[in-house]
Specification:
Layout: E1 4-11, H1 14-25, E2 28-31, E3 37-41, E4 52-56, E5 70-74, H2 78-87, E6 91-99, E7 103-109, E8 115-121
Parallel strand pairs: 1-4, 5-8
Antiparallel strand pairs: 1-5, 2-3, 3-4, 6-7, 7-8
Length: about 130
């Protein structure tokens, strides 16, 4: 059964957001090389919970901007999952994109307007 494996924060000012979450929760942020994306470590792998990421917001906060924590579901086949989601009434919120050396990611809005991410692991994604 697919599970939530990641959350993501979108920020207009990543440095400001990083400072906020470091101060508030003590989270650790590690920038990925050559990509404006920071991995977030929220705690020990020995404790319940998930880690996440932070990315610069791609659109202003309007009908297309993401202003939420986006939970990402691990899927076996992103293209197939996107097709099922769209057939069930979802709309694309963020087109499929490669996360280099990690996998493929896309966001959809569900039938209620909630944004969710889907991720397919693929170390050859580029």
């Amino acid at each position: 059964m697919p599970r939530v494996v990641h959350f993501e924060l979108h920020a207009d000012d990543p440095d400001r957001a990083i400072a906020f979450y470091e101060k508030l929760f003590g989270w650790k942020f590690n920038r990925m090389a050559d990509y404006e994306y920071w991995l977030i470590v929220t705690g020990s792998d020995k404790e319940p919970g998930i880690n996440g990421g932070l990315i610069r917001r791609k659109h202003p906060i309007t009908a297309h901007g993401i202003m939420a924590y986006v939970c990402t579901i691990d899927v076996e086949d992103l293209d197939a999952s996107l097709a099922i989601a769209l057939a069930a009434g979802a709309t694309i919120a963020l087109d499929k994109q490669a996360i280099p050396s990690v996998g493929w990611l896309a966001y959809v809005k569900d039938t209620e307007g909630n944004v969710l991410g889907m991720h397919q692991h693929d170390p050859n994604a580029a």
